[in-house]
Specification:
single chain; alpha/beta; Rossmann fold; four-stranded antiparallel beta sheet; 11 helices; globular; binds adenosine-5'-triphosphate; binds nickel (II) ion
């Protein structure tokens, strides 16, 4: 059962430097209880997809395509109608936790406040707050509940914002770079938390990250973005074991554990994309088709790859 279905999503920003095509014909879906991870280098259009799902794109953005949540079209929904979904049904775990935490309120209270908004009865408040805290991988949840945000580490603050998002019982969580700027230990704590959410609560999560290893560790499915479009999408284990697109192969080879072999070249600018294959200039095996023909996403038994040479 699909909770999220994105189809033919285009997001363009008209600017003085031309049209920036931040998202092009993006399509993928997320099943209930599944973690889907979108990866790609900076500027590849990851956050724009999250913003489109959350109705957070700036008014200047030109948007087309379809985003369905639980079968209901939400991309064209009015702001008034969408306001009923935001936070309650679809919640964002923001990249910067400081902006969403109240510095003057104890951490446990910040979760309890959201529960109060949902009219959770008084006698169940502390139990419910404790239950949410237990998912967040804090060494001492009670101590954390009694602390103020400035007394927590950056990683703990990030996990607390996830707890605040969970308190409204959303059915879909969108996490934009939840591990950005965290050190090794904090990143591992965050990964453990997302694993718990998946295993114990069966949360449906769309995660946006540049961290390929994070995708491998927690994603059920992974989508690889390049210059505003998906070049590969499929079950995580399959994509990592047998990447179908040369860009995915390059990303995997560039991981530290694989010898950190950098990919030569840079991606083309989003305001002057070439006519054919966007990856052609960097491709180790550039084909003649890719010169003038833009490859479509090919579906080979549930794996989607945007390369004329892909076959399973
Ligand atoms: N409001 C905006 N106006 C103009 N261009 C924008 C706007 N928001 C995003 N863009 C452009 O759209 C492209 C995609 O941006 P996006 O933030 O989705 O990238 P990203 O993959 O999330 O990168 P990062 O890893 O750095 O967060 C970028 O080229 C960016 O400059
Ligand atoms: Ni981003």
């Amino acid at each position: 059962m699909k909770i999220l279905e994105v189809a033919g999503l285009n997001v363009t920003f008209p600017t003085r430097r031309g049209m920036i095509r931040a998202s092009q014909n993006v399509g993928f879906s997320v099943d209930r209880g599944e973690i889907c991870v979108l990866v790609g280098e900076t500027g590849s259009g990851k956050s724009v997809i999250g913003q489109a799902i959350l109705h957070l794109l700036p008014k200047t953005a030109v948007v087309s395509g379809s985003i369905r949540y639980g079968g209901q079209e939400i991309l064209s929904m009015s702001e008034a109608a969408y306001a009923h979904l935001r936070g309650r049904e679809i919640a964002l775990i923001p990249q910067n936790p400081s902006g969403s935490l109240d510095p003057l309120m104890r951490c446990g209270r910040q979760i309890a406040e959201v529960l109060e908004c949902r009219e959770v009865p008084r006698e169940r408040l502390s139990g419910e707050t404790g239950r949410i805290l237990s998912y967040l991988n804090f060494p001492d949840p009670e101590l954390t509940a009694a602390s103020y945000p400035h007394e927590l580490s950056g990683g703990m603050r990030q996990r607390l914002t996830t707890g605040i998002a969970l308190a409204s019982e959303p059915r879909l969580l969108v996490a934009d770079e939840p591990t950005k700027g965290l050190d090794y230990a904090a990143r591992n704590a965050s990964i453990a938390m997302f694993r718990t959410l998946k295993e114990k609560r069966h949360d449906s999560i769309l995660m946006i990250t540049h961290d390929l290893e994070l995708a491998r560790l927690i994603g059920d499915t992974v989508g690889v973005l390049y210059s505003g479009e998906l070049v590969e999408f499929g079950p995580t284990a399959e994509v990592f074991e047998e990447p179908g697109h040369p860009y995915t192969r390059g990303l995997i080879a560039a991981l530290p554990k694989n010898g950190m072999k950098p990919m030569p070249g840079i991606c083309p600018g989003l305001s002057r994309l070439p006519k054919g294959c966007y990856f052609r200039d960097r491709c180790p095996h550039p084909c003649t088709e890719g010169e003038g023909f833009h490859p479509a996403m090919l579906d080979v038994s549930g794996r989607w790859v945007r390369c004329s040479h892909f076959s399973a």
